[in-house]
Structure formats: C-alpha cells, structure tokens
Amino acid sequence: TGPDQAAMYAGLQELGVANGEDLKETLTNCTEPLKAIEQFQTENGVLLPSLQSALPFLDLHGTPRLEFHQSVFDELREKLLERVSAIALEGKVEERYKKLEDLLEKSFSLVKMPSIQPVVMCVMKHLPKVPEKKLKLVMADKDLYKACAVEVKRQIWQDNQALFGDEVSPLLKQYILEKENILFSNDISVLHNFFSPSPKTRRQGEVVQKLTQMIGKNVKLYDMVLQFLRTLFLRTRNVHYCTLRAELLMSLHDLEISEICTVDPCHKFTWCLDACIREKFVDNKRARELQGFLDGVKKGQEQVLGDLSMILCDPFAINTLALSTIRHLQDLVGQDTLPRESPDLLLLLRMLSLGQGAWDMIDSQVFKEPKMEAELITKFLPMLMSFVVDDHTFNVDQKLPSEEKGPIPYPSTIPEAFTKFLLENRIACEIGLYYILHITKQRNKNAFLRLLPALVETFSDLAFSDIFLHLLTGNLTLLGDEFALEEFCTSLFDGFFLTACSRKENVHRHVLRLLLHLHHKVAPAKLESLQKALEPTKQSGEAVKELYNQLTEKLELRKPSPAEVTETPSMELPLPTVPTPASR
Q: What are the pLDDT digits (tens) for 443-472?
C-alpha cells in the first residue's frame, strides 16, 4: 500500500481494527504463512458462530471471500445510514444529537476511507452543530470539503465569508452572462423578449435555485449574498444584480422559508410588486398596498429604503412601472385630467424615482427618497399627452373628406423642451423611451420618426442601453415594410444607430442583430452602404465580428450569380429611367 492508502486506513488502528499493515507485519514475522492467514481471517472476519459452517459452502460455489464480505459490508452500511437518518428524527432533541455526536466521535477517524466516508458524512449532515474542530479538519482537506453535504458546508461558510464568496462568485458571473445572452439573442421578436418569462419561471433558473439551496434557512448566509449583490451593484452599476436580489427573496418565499422571509423588511413589498410584474401592470389595489409600505418606513429605519430602491431598480420592476405610467397617461387624455391630479400616476413616478436612485442612495448611504422635480409632472408628462392628442387629431383628420386645402401633414417638429428633458432628467428619459417603444409597437411610423432625433443624446446614454435597444429592435420588426424606404432607413440608421456604433460596441451588435433579421426588407443600395459602415475595426470584439460574418454570409446567398447577370439581353434603345420607390 502506498502512503495515501496507508493514510486512508490509518483510522482503523485507532479503533483497534487490524488493517493491511498489520497483515503485512504478521506475514513478515511468521514461520507458517497459511496458518497466520487463517488466524487473521478468524480474528477479523464476521464473528457469527453460525457463519463458520456456511463459508465453505460459498467456497464450493467459487464465490470469493472478498465478494461475500463486500456484500455484507454494503448491506450493513445501508442499514447504518438508515439508522442514522432515523436517529436524527426520534426522541428528545438533546438525546438524539448526543447519540449522533458520540457516533461522529467514534467514526470520524475513518472519514478518509471511501467505504466508510458516506456514513461519517451522513452523521455530520444531521447535526445542526458539528463540533468546530471537525469542521476545521473538513475545511482544510479539499476532498473532504467537496464530499460533505450542503448542510455541513453552510456551517463552514457562515464563519468563512471569503470561502462562501468563492463558491457564490461563479454563480453570479453565470447569472449576468445568462441575462446578457438573452438581450443579445439572435431571435428578435416582439412576442418573446427579455421581459416575457413570468417571475415564477425566472425563479426556476439554475443560479437562483442553487443559491436558494446553498442558503437553506440560514439568515447569516442570506445576508452575505445580499451584501455581495450590493457590493457588485455598486462596483459595476449592473442592474441585473437587483433582479437577482428580488428573485432570491421570492424563491425563498415560494419555499415558505419563514426564518428568512420574516426578517427581510422588504418581503411583503417585494411580494406585492412581484404580483404586479406578473401582470405587467400596477392596479389600484396593489398601488395602495405598495404606497402603504413606502409611507410606513419609520424614523430610524430609513436604511430599508436602500433595499427597497434596489428591488425597484430591477429592470422587471422598472418595465412594469413604466408600462403602467404610459397606460395611465393615455387614460388621463381620455378623462381630460392632468397628471398632477392623478394620485396613482404620482405613486408610479415616486417608485420609478426610488428605483432609478438606487445606486446613488446605496453609494452615498443617505437613505431618503429622491425629490421629484415638479417640472416632470407639470411640463414633461403633459407634453407626452399632447403627442397622444396629436396622433388622435391626425387620425381623425385623415378620415375627414379632404377639401381644396389638401391633407394636413403630420407634425414633424418636436418641442425643444422634450429633447432637453430626455437629456437632463432620468425619470423623464425612462418614460420618454417607453413612450417611443409604445408608438413603435403600435406601428406608428409618423410618431416614431418625429421623436427619434431626441434619442441621439439622452440621460446617461439610456437610449443606447442594452435593454432599450433589445426592446426597440423587437418592436421595429412590426415596421418591417418601412425598411424598403430610403427616408426611414436614413432616419433610423444614419440619424440614430450609426451615431453611436463606433463608440459603443453594444450598439454595433444590436444593429447587426436587427439587420440579420430584416436584411431582406432593406433597399439593396442602402444595405450595401450599411454593410460598409458596419464593417468591424481592429478594436471590435469577437461578438461583433461573428455577427458581421453571419450577415455577410446571408447577403452572399442573396446575390445573383455573375452568370445570371450577364445573360440578360441588352436593349437596343436607351430607356428613360423610371424612379424606384426608394429613391423618390
């Protein structure tokens, strides 16, 4: 036996059980080896008198003793494992744990023996508090640490934040990567987008499930994960960490883990908001409930606002609040009511403001609700409502019998104040972008082209953020036929996308995604110039190059072969050129 084997069986000697080393020693120092082997077998075999006469019977059947002993051993181990699990559930708490602790004390020295290890691990798994000394030995040995149950690991992690961090970190990276893969997916659709899966479906994701299992009912570990998420959100400003914060709490809620849910002050708020996200709308009843939570933050407990703001900063929450805001504005137009007269609308703005202010609040550690700018309510929102009215007016005009003066053109200018709001006010920008998504989804080309120039410069470049571009590209598929028109393509590509492509790799990727999906709709001359403009540079990342190659391949397949081109008979007479629809 090598040194590793020796170490593995060393524990047997401590228990007074002979091992391979003892047999070796016996055989080295004896005169009659066969007799010595027989004696060793008798002393260390299964000590059952009735068995002695049965063993030769097995020999006659050619069954090796090893096979027999192995099957007895496996059977006994199974019985022991069942018994350990039963002890963990029977009798008084102190007594059952005393039995398990005694068993652990006796068996721990054999923890490295592969055949006995499952029993030792099972005993530890059922002990709510494994002795510190044993935990340290497990932690120090990579293989033992790997082999022990998550119940034991939790006891190790709760006093070793760095080790727990090492376990959690790859999961958090995986989570962010999964989110980004959805945003950059080549499947562009208005029906299935980033926000399509229900909260319950999202919580079934691998990362959320693994983290939920790692935490169990351990409040200390839950707090550690929240601390990791806060720190990473601060470091990266990546809002997907806010989504994970909410998903994790709701995953524990689904499992009814009251030990954690009752101590997280955001639980009921998150639960109520989760129902709104499921419906993609904040109804009046839930709005009152959410307002109750916000108004109920007591003096001295303002720190909870930091957590609530992170829950509201989750893109799924922002999406729900923004969609509800647009719906409210449309209703107000029909009711002839101003935004400042609608308490429901003001509450939505309050929550949007709290969510959008999450990073600043956690960074500054100043826990108070951000002040709402009056002009947002008195000027910006009425301006959006006037756009809705413009559309109604234009649509009615189109239906009226036209007189000599001819049809009234669609308003093409945008108020300077609108562009200024989108650049300087975060909440206005968010709502403005959602309004543009809304008109695109309605296939309202006129309104889209009118407001598009305002997107070139927005607050913190929000119009070039992945979530907005993911939704916009999806909605643009509804305007597919417009891509044949020069004017539309020039406004969309030259006037918007290409202004940021060279400085923002993500925009480059989104444009390529869109063209991969709609290239067959784009006028050939425009497509050619776009292909040139979108060619990757040396600095471009792999993703851009890959998408560009895919697009090039698709376009190659569409080109007619040179043979086809030359075969067209030449006309004798020069024909007058007929303008194509695209060049009008």
A: 999 999 999 999 999 999 999 999 999 999
Please tell me the predicted confidence (pLDDT) of residue 584: 38
452 close to 495: Cβ distance less than 8 angstroms: yes
| 47-51, 129-133, 285-289, range with greatest mean pLDDT | 285-289
Amino acid in the structure at residue 474: G
Q: Is the pLDDT of residue 575 over 50?
A: no
At CA 305, angle to CA 300 and CA 307, rounded to 5? 120
Supply the pLDDT for residue 568. Answer: 47
Please tell me the distance from the alpha carbon of residue 250 to that of residue 255, in angstroms, as a whole number. Answer: 9
Distance in angstroms (rounded) separating the CA atoms of residues 326 and 316: 16
Please give the pLDDT value at position 573: 47
Chain length of the chain: 584
Burial class (CB in 10 A: 0-12, 13-18, 19+), 67: exposed
Cβ(491)–Cβ(531) below 8 Å: no
Give the pair of three-digit tokens for residue 306.
């930091």
Higher pLDDT, 109 or 476: 476
What pTM, to 2 d.p., does this model score?
0.84
d(CA 311, CA 356): 11
More confident residue, 581 or 424: 424
Cβ contacts of 472 within 8 Å, gap of 6 or more: 436, 437, 440
Separation of alpha carbons 117 and 393, rounded Å:
79
Dump the DSSP string for 116-176: THHHHHHHHHT-SS--HHHHHHHHH-HHHHHHS-HHHHHHHHTT-HHHHHHHHHHHHHHHH
Distance (Å, rounded) from C-alpha 141 to C-alpha 8? 13
Nearest to 135 by CA among 143, 126, 288, 144: 144
Contacts of 267 (CB under 8 A, 6+ apart): 249, 253, 261
CA distance 268 to 274: 10
377 in Cβ contact with 417 (< 8 Å): no
Q: Write out the two tokens for 137.
A: 């030995």
CA distance 159 to 427: 42
Given this model, what pLDDT does residue 13 score? 58
C-alpha angle 218-86-91 in degrees, rounded to nearest 5: 85
166, two tokens: 């090492």
